[in-house]
Write a structure and sequence with these properties.
This protein is of the alpha/beta class. It contains five helices and seven strands, in the order E-H-E-E-E-H-E-H-E-H-H-E. It is globular.
Length: 151
Amino acid sequence: MRPKHILAPSDFSHHSEPAIKAAFELASQFDATLHLVHVLAEPVVAIAPEPMIVSVEPPEYYHESEIACLGALKELSEKFNSAHVQVKTAALWGSPIDTILNYASQNAIELIVISTHGRTGLSHILLGSVAESILRNAPCPVLTFREKSNN
C-alpha cells in the first residue's frame, strides 16, 4: 500500500500531535499529499422564550472562525513539515465524524491518521469516540495513535 492522499484530522489538542507528526512522516515516505483538517462545530442555536425568535451567530463569526482555524493548521504544518510535504488544509463545519468521513470519500483519501484520547469506561460511554467511529466507518484504512500513559 502506497497512499497518495493521507488525511490527518486535528482537534488542536496535545493528544493529536503524535498522529499529526506520524502523518507528515508517512506523507514524506510515500510522497503523498497530506490533508490536514479541523472540524468546526456548528454553533448551538438558542431559542428564546418566544417561539418565533431564534438567535444566530453573525456571518463574521463563521468567517473569523475559519480564518483562525486555517492559521492554526498552518502553524501545525510549519511545526511538523520538515520534509516539505505537499499539504492541503481545510476548516470544515459539521459534526466531526460525518464531516471527516465525507471529506475522506470526496477527496480520494487512502489512509486516515488520527489520534485517540484513550478514554475508557464511563467517559467513553458518555463522550463516545470520534476515532472509533472513524475506524469503523472509514472508506479506507485508519491508523490510530494513543498518547502514551505515564504508568
